[in-house]
Design goal:
The protein has about 180 residues and is an alpha+beta fold. The protein has one domain: 4'-phosphopantetheinyl transferase domain (Ribosomal Protein L22, Chain A, Alpha-Beta Complex), CATH 3.90.470. Helix content is about 25%, strand content about 30%. It is built from four helices and nine strands. Strand 2 and strand 3 form a beta hairpin. Helix 1 runs antiparallel to helix 2. The longest helix has 22 residues. The protein is globular, with a radius of gyration of 16 Å.
Length: about 180
């Protein structure tokens, strides 16, 4: 009898400077519209990077070109296209977050739930921001009491990054996703 391998959660992070208009070609029409509806240039950059990094990371894990990957954001409550992202037909769970100058995507293959949250301190007390990221990451991972929370290294100065998963023994890797996006 062999021991079961622990789940692997990979968190990909990129800085806002990685935003490039060429990433739009990876997105579908709904995602492009979502980017276009953002009020500020910074929000457009974060939304673009979140969608492109999600597609690029998930595509690499699944062996599917990022532009061909099907991403569904249907809300489970109303059916609108603003819900938690999923990759239909796979066992890959994903979570996206962005704040300040950072975008992050967490992936978990093989079943289970994952949630990630990043927040910029913006003059707020670190403990308050950490508590908020824990709440958000747990919500994104489906809530419940059986979640394991990981405070991850700050991806940029004055940012807090937190991960929650229902896989208590998961190995967590944090990777700079800039090269992944550049290699698309």
């Amino acid at each position: 009898m062999t021991a079961q391998q622990p789940a692997i959660v990979t968190v990909f992070t990129v800085g806002l400077t990685a935003a490039d208009i060429g990433l739009l070609e990876l997105l579908d029409d709904r995602e492009r519209l979502r980017v276009a509806r953002c009020a500020s240039e910074a929000d457009r950059g974060r939304t673009l990077l979140g969608a492109a990094l999600l597609r690029t990371a998930a595509g690499a894990m699944l062996g599917v070109p990022a532009g061909e990957l099907r991403v569904d954001r249907s809300c489970t409550s109303c059916g609108g296209w603003h819900g938690r992202p999923t990759i239909p037909g796979t066992d890959l769970d994903v979570s996206v977050t962005h704040s300040g100058s950072v975008v992050a995507v967490a992936t978990l293959a093989g079943g289970g739930r994952v949630g990630v949250d990043v927040e910029r301190l913006a003059g707020r007390p670190g403990a308050e921001v950490l508590a908020w990221t824990i709440t958000e990451a747990c919500f994104k991972a489906g809530g419940g009491l059986d979640l394991t929370v990981h405070q991850l290294p700050p991806p940029a100065p004055n940012h807090v990054l937190t991960l929650a998963t229902d896989q208590p023994d998961a190995l967590v890797k944090v990777i700079d996703g800039t090269a992944l996006l550049a290699a698309r």
